[in-house]
Amino acid sequence: MPRFATPIGARPLRGRAHGGKTGIDTGGTFTDFVVRDGDSVHVHKVLSTPRDPAAAVLDGLAALSPHATGRITYGSTVATNALLERRGARVCLVTTEG
Predict the structure, then answer these.
(1) Using CB atoms within 10 A as the burial measure, which of 43, 69, 70, 82 is most buried?
(2) Cβ atoms 56, 26 nearer than 8 A
(3) Which of 16, 10, 19 is nearest to 43 (CA)?
(4) Is the peptide bond preceding residue 66 cis, with omega within 30 degrees of 0?
(5) Is the Cβ–Cβ distance between 45 and 22 less than 8 Å?
């Protein structure tokens, strides 16, 4: 696994290499990362990439490697705001039981 330098503005991560929990939120300007590694909490942010939100997520995870390897939870403020402000296309969710 490649090693990455600590990103500007991020604090060095110490602790268990594979036991962390990572929360990610894609917003309109920044994609934010919070890593809980043992008793430590670390934050990091990268500029969002509106045309391809996954690119910012992958950049941030690469910068935090190998610490962001445990459970990852993802949310999108962009999607939440669009829903709350009733912007975007009309959608319909159709599911089957199970």
Answers:
(1) 69
(2) yes
(3) 10
(4) yes
(5) no
CB of 32 closer than 8 Å to CB of 45: yes
Angstrom CA distances, 85 to 26, 50, 81, stand at 17, 18, 6
| φ, ψ of residue 83 in degrees (nearest 5) | -65, -50
Q: Per-residue pLDDT tens for 1-52?
A: 334 344 444 444 444 445 678 999 999 899 999 988 778 888 899 999 988 9
Dist. CA 75–CA 72, nearest whole Å: 10
Residues 22/71, Cβ–Cβ less than 8 Å: yes
Q: Which value, in Å, is the radius of gyration of the alpha carbons in the chain?
A: 16
Strand arrangement, sheet containing 30-37: 40-47, 30-37, 21-26, 71-76
C-alpha 25/C-alpha 78 separation (Å) is 9
